[in-house]
Amino acid sequence: VLAFACAVSALEQDNPDFAGIPNSALQLYKITLGMFSGSNFDIMMDYPALMVAIFAYVVTTVIFMLNLLIAQLNCSYQSTYQDMLGFARLNRGKIVT
Fold first, then answer.
1. The predicted structure's pLDDT at residue 97
2. Average pLDDT, the chain
3. 13, 18, 26, 69 - which has most CB atoms within 10 Å?
4. How far is Cα 67 from Cα 24, in angstroms, rounded to an integer?
5. Contact 50, 13 (CB under 8 A)
């Protein structure tokens, strides 16, 4: 977020929402959480470089969140698989004895 906030604030644009690094970071967090209003998106259409930067941020954020979801599901599957193997061994031990 900080890298994109620095990049957006360095662009040649007059949007007051993205003036300065703290304001840019706040607006990027709002975009990530879906709290950024539609009227502000309409205002951003006047600044194509800003729109491209925001689009790149959204794409990067979505890819990161999907990778995070996949990693969480993988860890969950691994722990479930280990539990399944343990229960299978216990059941085999009951059959043998």
1. 66
2. 89
3. 18
4. 25
5. yes
